[in-house]
Specification:
flat, 55% helix, kinase activity, alpha+beta, Beta Polymerase, domain 2, binds ligand 0O2, 212 residues, 7 helices
């Protein structure tokens, strides 16, 4: 496939990512404006690089004609939460939306990956409007806590550095760190109500000052 063709394939995915980032960030803003705690803390998104798509197609033996059906994470959205409890709330918010249709879910929180990776994944369908009409796009939404994100980011860069062959002694350290992340998330959950109250109060103060 030449560059122009890749560009045409990936453009609607870029649109889907940009639209969903705006929509999820708007959700955060709405919560704040109503003096409510937002279960989403931060939103990021990306379109998979061509080399990463090609690597996945090769690894999973995916034919070019099946690319858009079988590579489900060409478009990716990441929703970062403060607490583990927020993840269920965010998942519920997504399931209720009329502009998103859930195709499948993977719970790597109850079932941590062997690497120590934890996150909640949803594959969803999302419609975009292009000059050629409506297109149904698959998007992978990853939902995780800030602590899970910290671990995954570090581990991902080590995978990159070691070309997915992380030495055993480092893997062991990462596994220990993954256990520490579970403890940290559990510990933070015990003070969740206190923190939520504090954040709502400070948000109300901010809104009041903005109204003056
Ligand atoms: P990117 O864009 O660099 O994040 P796959 O893992 O791709 O063979 P599958 O079934 O398509 O298989 O996807 P899966 O495992 O549900 O989710 C894949 C994505 O989840 C990965 O994307 C990562 O973002 C994340 N992920 C899954 N396992 C791990 C892990 O052990 N460590 C880290 N850091 N992230 C993980 P990609 O493909 O790596 O691409």
């Amino acid at each position: 496939m030449d560059i122009q063709l890749w560009h045409e394939i990936l453009e609607p995915y870029e649109l889907a990512v940009q639209e969903l980032i705006v929509k999820f960030r708007y959700l955060i803003k709405e919560h704040q404006q109503h003096g409510q705690y937002s279960p989403i803390e931060a939103v990021t998104g990306r379109v998979k690089t061509v080399s990463s798509i090609l690597e996945k197609m090769q690894r999973k033996n995916i034919a070019s004609k099946d690319l858009e059906e079988e590579v489900e994470d060409i478009a990716g959205i990441r929703l970062i939460c403060q607490f583990v409890e927020d993840i269920d709330k965010v998942t519920e918010l997504i399931r209720k939306r009329s502009d998103i249709e859930v195709k499948s879910e993977k719970d790597y929180i109850s079932h941590m990956k062997e690497s120590g990776y934890r996150s909640y994944h949803l594959i969803v369908y999302y419609m975009v409007e292009t000059m050629n009409g409506t297109k149904k796009i698959q998007v992978e939404i990853q939902i995780r806590t800030m602590a899970m994100d910290f671990w995954a980011t570090i581990e991902h860069s080590l995978q990159y550095k070691y070309k997915s062959n992380i030495p055993q002694h480092i893997r062991q350290r990462l596994s220990n760190a993954a256990d520490a992340i579970i403890s940290l998330d559990n510990e933070m959950s015990t003070v969740r109500n206190e923190i939520m109250d504090a954040q709502i109060s400070s948000q109300i103060q901010t809104n009041l000052v903005a109204d003056i």
